[in-house]
Amino acid sequence: MKKIEVQTTVSADIKRVWEFWNAPIHITKWAFASGDWECPHAVNDLIEGGKFLTRMSAKDGSSSFDFTGTYTKVVPFEKIEYTTDDGRTVSIDFEKMGDNSVKISEEFELENINPEKMQRDGWQTILNNFKKHVEGE
C-alpha cells in the first residue's frame, strides 16, 4: 500500500504534547477532519497490544464512524505505531526540537475508498487541529 506523511511542529514541551495526543479528554477536542465534524467519544489503551477507538461524527447527525486499531509499538515521548482494524499501518514520530517545541511526523497507508488528496488533507487537518488545541489551551 502507498504511504504518505503529514507533519506539524507544536510549540509546547514534549510532556504536554504526549498527554494531549493520548488522553481521551483531549482526543475528543481535536480528532476530526473538518469543522462540521466532531469527536464525541474516544478510548485509548496506550500499550503495545492495547486498543483505541476514536468516534468521528458529523455535527448534523447524518454520519458517524469509529476509527479503531491496535498499538504495535509505543516508545513514550518518541514513537507510536499501530495497525488499524482494516489492516493499514500508521507510524507517528515525536521529535523534540528544543525546550519548547515538538515536530510530529505521521506516516500512514492510504485506504482504497477515498482519493489520496482527500486523505492527505484530512489527516493534515486533524494534525493542525491537534496543534491548535495544544497551543491554545
Describe the protein.
By secondary structure, the chain is α+β, with helices and mostly antiparallel strands. It has a single domain, classed as START domain (Alpha-D-Glucose-1,6-Bisphosphate, Chain A, domain 4, 2-Layer Sandwich). 27% of the residues lie in helices and 42% in strands. The protein contains three helices and seven strands; from the N terminus they run βααββββββα. A seven-stranded antiparallel β-sheet has the order 1-7-6-5-4-3-2. Strand 4 and strand 5 form a beta hairpin. The longest helix has 21 residues. It is globular and about 40 Å long.
How can the largest sheet be summarized? 7 strands, antiparallel
CA distance, first residue to last residue: 37 Å
Report the order of strands and helices.
EHHEEEEEEH
Rg result: 14 Å
Mean pLDDT score, rounded?
95
Query: Count the helices. How many?
Result: 3
- Strand proportion, as a percent range, falls in 35-45%
What top-tier CATH class fits best? Alpha Beta
Summing up helix and strand content along with how strands pair, one would put the structural category as: alpha+beta
What CATH calls the topology is Alpha-D-Glucose-1,6-Bisphosphate, Chain A, domain 4
Summarize the amount of helix as a percent range.
25-40%
* CATH architecture designation: 2-Layer Sandwich
Q: What is the 3D form?
A: globular
Spans where pLDDT lies below 50 across 5 or more residues:
none
The overall strand count is 7
Give the strand order, joined by hyphens, for the main sheet: 1-7-6-5-4-3-2
CATH superfamily: START domain
- The total tally of domains equals 1
